[in-house]
Design goal:
Blueprint lengths: L11 H11 L4 H17 L8 H12 L4 E5 L8 E4 H16 L10 E5 L5 H13 L2 E5 L6 H11 L1 E6 L4 H8 L3 E2 L1
Helix pairs in contact: 1-2, 1-3, 3-4, 4-5, 6-7
Length: about 180
């Protein structure tokens, strides 16, 4: 019998460096530093952990919780929805817990099909929640929604959970039985 142990490698050095890159003043400077950081890790053969995004988000939520992190604009110049790093972190954690609780009981590696408009803030939160829970995030634009397309996508992707809004619930309900509604 072979026993395998998997341990999460520390991403703290990468998070620290990435945090410093994000704090750089100009966009060009940030891009240059980020490219250098990623090139260095690629040359050393180090894989950047899939948890890196969540680690960086958590650090920002602790160190600068009130800093605005996400702006969703319904039309040009309209910043109607703003979320802070703390908001994003808390909401994505709640969603990740919802996915893995007894009612939905999703486990790492299972697929979540998200049928929401591209500009919905929930898409970002669901992506982060899927990363936290180890789930496969599969976005789908409702503009291309058809009964056949949804059924085929659910079957081909072995979808375990479908998430949509009230506007698209009826067409999604038929092939998926019990979609999660946002």
């Amino acid at each position: 019998m072979t026993i395998k142990s998997i341990r999460r490698l520390s991403t703290k050095p990468v998070v620290d460096k990435l945090f410093n890159v994000v704090q750089s003043s100009s966009c060009n400077e940030r891009q240059t530093q980020l490219n250098h950081l990623l090139d260095t890790y690629a040359q050393q053969g180090k894989a950047i952990s899939h948890n890196l995004i969540n680690d960086v988000l958590q650090r920002w939520a602790v160190e600068q919780p009130k800093r605005e992190a996400l702006w969703m604009c319904e039309s040009e110049g309209d910043e109607s929805q703003k979320l802070t790093f703390d908001d994003i972190h808390k909401q994505s954690c709640r969603l990740a817990n919802t996915f893995t609780n007894r009612e939905y009981n999703l486990t790492p590696g299972q697929t979540v099909l998200v049928i929401l408009p591209n500009n919905a803030k929930e898409r970002v939160l669901l992506l982060l929640a899927c990363l936290q829970a180890g789930l496969i995030y599969c976005p789908y634009d409702p503009k291309y929604l058809t009964n056949i397309g949804i059924s085929e996508r659910i079957r081909n992707l072995s979808v375990n959970c479908v998430i949509t809004d009230e506007d698209h619930l009826e067409i999604v309900q038929q092939p998926s039985r019990t979609p999660l509604t946002i």
